[in-house]
Structures are given as structure tokens and as C-alpha cells.
Amino acid sequence: MQKLALLVVVLLAVPLAISRGTAAATVRMQVTHADAASGLGGGELLQRMARRSKARSARFPASPMSAPVSATVSSSGAFSPAEYTVHMAVGTPPQPVRLILDTGSDLTWTQCLPCPGCFNQTLPYFNSSRSSTFAFLPCDSTPCQHLDFTSCGNSKYLPNQTCVYIYNYGDTSVSTGLLNKDTFTFGVSGRSSLPGMAFGCGLFNRLFFTNQTNTGVAGFGRGPLSLPSQLRVGNFSHCFTAVTGSKPSTVMLDLPDHLYRKGRDAVHTTPLVQNPVYPSFYYLSLKGITVGSTMLPVPESEFALRNDGTGGTVIDSGTSITTFPPRVYRLLRDAFAEQMKLPMVPSNMTGGLTCFSAPRRSKPHVPKLVLHFEDAKMDLPRNNYVYEFEDEGDNFICLAITEGDEMSTIGNYQQQNMHVLYDLQHNKLSFVPAHCDKL
Ligand SMILES: *[C@@H]1O[C@H](CO)[C@@H](O)[C@H](O)[C@H]1NC(C)=O
Ligand SMILES: *[C@@H]1O[C@H](CO)[C@@H](O)[C@H](O)[C@H]1NC(C)=O
Ligand SMILES: *[C@@H]1O[C@H](CO)[C@@H](O)[C@H](O)[C@H]1NC(C)=O
Ligand SMILES: *[C@@H]1O[C@H](CO)[C@@H](O)[C@H](O)[C@H]1NC(C)=O
Ligand SMILES: *[C@@H]1O[C@H](CO)[C@@H](O)[C@H](O)[C@H]1NC(C)=O
Ligand SMILES: *[C@@H]1O[C@H](CO)[C@@H](O)[C@H](O)[C@H]1NC(C)=O
């Protein structure tokens, strides 16, 4: 595992296709992903995912003192290697953008000219002068008032009273720029155009991680500025294909019922909980965890959302691997260690991850992992919680879960080949095992 040379980046590039077969027009965004490197660099993929998940989980202040600041702190801080990047276009005529799909934040932004402080991107920067439908939003506009950190632009470089924003993410990622509106186009052939979408033109931006393929972030959170809120959809879903593969994934808005019919028996539904302190996040009620036949002795209060807004469990597309609070993580690790019956690799060699060394070319038994939510059971397939790889002939099995802060976060690694539906009308989340490449 010392041979961690390759940066493995899994990105999802999303040419959108709109299917309009049903009464409620479904916007279907197809997500393709590919490895940046030809082979997976042993444990590197997992270690990078773990670092980001940890960084992201650290976004919450332990003490309520910093709560006012953290109101804008978003979960998308962890731009993990397993990013799901949606292709859309902005402006008239449309200019392509590639935005990280983030259910943990609301603002959608892309880098814009003159871009005095932008990270490199392979696509051209968005040029608002080339769009006939582009308009600045003033600071007294409703979308501007939905942001926590804004000021009124009044310099000779800016139109008077322009909404200037700063949007922070917990891991030091940040975008600063101007709030605007313009037409968004979903679909490569421009078949679905939505005028007047509020979005940020990022002028000074930093991402924890970028391989230059993405140009910004698509906010799919619960706040009024997010894309689902602005589009007024009743629901959206994502279905992520295997992180380590290259098959296309799908994101859908206003998804028809019949797509769920196939696996109806296996559909699990749990309430979405609201946390007034962090209103953008999709909170779930996690009640317990079983490892094999062992129910971890975690008091339910350990998972509870506390009155000061700390704790609780969120589901987040912007995080790669799931994190649990330290005490829960230790119980989980110990239960695995006991049931795996394989030697554990010293954690100073694994970046703190729980890994076991296995006989060469073996496929050892791994205890089942089940997350028990209110009214719903997430029975994770093996590939959604262990990461197996070979390094210099040795075989390793690692738990793709790490220790985070007081809040638990269900990351996208755990959601592979699962169709996850956010029912915004009824405040419910459903999930069902699916072949995401065949949706
Ligand atoms: C980023 O990742 C994508 C998808 O794997 C790849 O096609 C692209 O070449 C990478 N870009 C850079 C600059 O490494
Ligand atoms: C961006 O690209 C330019 C030209 O390729 C390069 O000189 C510069 O170092 C890059 N900046 C970053 C932050 O990677
Ligand atoms: C932006 O678009 C305007 C109008 O087409 C053009 O004059 C200008 O050169 C463009 N800026 C850049 C940096 O491409
Ligand atoms: C900017 O707007 C304010 C308030 O509308 C106005 O008082 C001021 O004169 C304007 N300044 C310029 C340079 O237009
Ligand atoms: C999603 O929302 C649309 C329109 O609001 C509705 O017709 C459809 O039944 C919903 N789909 C599911 C799976 O709940
Ligand atoms: C890890 O710790 C063990 C002792 O617990 C030590 O022998 C070993 O050298 C350490 N390995 C690394 C890579 O630091």
C-alpha cells in the first residue's frame, strides 16, 4: 500500500437527454464517468476518498458558537474523486458547463470571465457578454436574499447594486462572485431550456479537489436556490454506477412512477428530517447498524439530531465514503475485525482506514452491513462497503467507511447501483437496488 503513485479520479460526465414520454416531463440527465488513470492505484482511490470525506465531515463546528457562520457551510466541501459531474449549458446561445452534483448545497455556480481567481478548467470560461439572456441580479432580489454572505457591488467595474456573494464549503473550498440569472439548457441538443435560473458567476474560486473537468457546482440541496427548488420539481433521483467502472449514470427530475415499479418490493422509504440549523441538508433518521448478526451497541441518542443542530445523519452525493462519529466507527471496526477473522493491517499504513490482508486471489467472507433507518433498511451489497485491491501481489480488503465528526454522512460510495429518489413533495427518501447502467 506504500505504492500510492496514481491519482485515481473517477468523474461522471453527463450528456443530458430529455425524455418527454410522460405527462410530467421528466428531465433525464445521463451521467458518464471514466477513470482518469488507466489502473486503480491500489489503496490510493480509497485513501483519497477517505481524506475528503473526513475533511467534509469536519465542516460542522463542535460548539454552537460558530453556528451563524456555519449556516452557509456546505457539505460539498468534500469534492471526492468520485464526483458526479453534470453537463448542462448556460446562456443564449448555450455555453457548456460541467457541474459537480451536490445534494449538500444550494448555490449553482460556474467560473466566469474575466476569472481573475479561477482554477484551470478544460472548457472555456463562461463569457456572459456572449449571452443575450444574461442579467445581473441586484442585491435586493429574492435570490440574493437567500444567500447568507452577500454585499452590494458598487464599484466602477460592476453594475450598480449587483449581488456579490461568498459561498463557503467546509473543507476550505469557496466561490466568490456575482449572482445572475440566465437560461439553463439540459440536453446535448438543447431540447429543454429553462429561462431565468439564478446562478453564481464565480470569479474567485477554489475547490478542494478538481481535475479541471468540472467548472463549478450544481446545488441540489433543500434550500430555495437549489436547482430542484428553482425548477419546482416534485422529486429527483440519482442512480450511480460503480465508482470503479465507466458506465453512464443517471440523474432525473420529476421521475415517473413506472421506473420504480420493477423493484417495488425492494423499495424502502424513510422520512426526510429537517434541521433548522442546516436547512439545506437531507437528514435521515438512522436508528442502528448491524454487522453480520451483531447489532452494534450504539445508543440511539448517539445518532440523534441534537437541538443545537449537531449530530444526525445526512445523505449526500457530494461525499464519497460514509463517515460515522468516532465512537460509532470504533464499534463498527471492532465488529468487523472480530468477524473477518483476517489480520488487520496496522492503521499507520492505511491512513487510518480499516484494512485486512487476505490470501492471494481469495474472495474472503465479509460480514453483511445493514443500516437501519426509520421504516427502511439499507442492506448494502458487498461492493458498497468494502474496497478490495491487490498491491505487489498482496490482497487487501478495506472498509470503505471512515471516522468523521459528530454527524454521520451517507456518501455516494454506499449508494452505488442504488436508485435513490428524493421525494420533495412528501419529504421522503426512497431507495431500491438497481442496475444503474440500465435505467
Ligand atoms: C479528469 O478526469 C476525466 C475523466 O476521467 C479525464 O477524461 C480527464 O482527462 C481528466 N483531466 C485531467 C486534467 O486530468
Ligand atoms: C493552469 O494552467 C496554466 C497553463 O497550462 C499553468 O501555467 C498553471 O500553472 C495552471 N494553474 C494551476 C493552478 O494548475
Ligand atoms: C467575451 O465575449 C465578447 C462578446 O462576444 C468578446 O468580445 C470577448 O472577446 C469575449 N471574451 C473573451 C475573453 O473571450
Ligand atoms: C447606485 O444606486 C444607488 C441606489 O439606487 C443610487 O443612489 C446611486 O446613484 C447609483 N450609482 C450609480 C453610479 O449609478
Ligand atoms: C415525481 O413527481 C412527479 C411530478 O410531481 C409525479 O408525477 C411522479 O409520480 C413522482 N414520481 C415518483 C416516483 O414519486
Ligand atoms: C507502524 O507502526 C508499527 C508499530 O506499531 C511500526 O513497526 C511500523 O514501522 C509503522 N509503520 C509505518 C509505515 O509507520
UniProtKB/TrEMBL annotation:
Molecular function GO labels: aspartic-type endopeptidase activity
Superkingdom in the source lineage: Eukaryota
Domain Peptidase A1: 84-432
GO cellular component entries: extracellular region
Gene Ontology biological-process entries: proteolysis
Keywords, in A-Z order: Aspartyl protease, Glycoprotein, Hydrolase, Protease, Signal
Pfam families: TAXi_C, TAXi_N
Span of the signal peptide: 1-24
PANTHER family: ASPARTYL PROTEASE FAMILY PROTEIN (PTHR47967:SF31), OS07G0603500 PROTEIN-RELATED (PTHR47967)
Stated family: Belongs to the peptidase A1 family.
Protein name: Peptidase A1 domain-containing protein
Naturally occurring in which organism (per UniProt): Zizania palustris (Northern wild rice)
Taxonomic placement: Eukaryota, Viridiplantae, Streptophyta, Embryophyta, Tracheophyta
